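Throughout this chapter, every protein is written as a compact record of paired, labelled lines. The reader may check this reading against the record printed directly beneath this paragraph:
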Amino acid sequence: MDGQHSYSIILEPQEGGGFTVLVPALPEVVTEGDTESEALANAEEAIRAVLAYRRDNGISIPADARPEVRKVTVAA
């Protein structure tokens, strides 16, 4: 792979245990793991696969997206 790419991720704990990982700059990356370290390793593997696919198919590789977390309160 040409160069290095760094991406912000969202690591979301799940109620039943484990973690889901999202990569805002690469929406095709959604993965998970039973532990935080497993989820991060799976995210690295998924990111590498998506970047290789994009490169091999002439699809641009985006820069990092900087997600911002906000809290919204609504009456229900």
Observations:
- The first strand starts at residue 10 and ends at 13.
- The chain has a mean pLDDT of 95.
- The chain has one helix and three strands.
- The two ends are 49 Å apart (CA to CA).
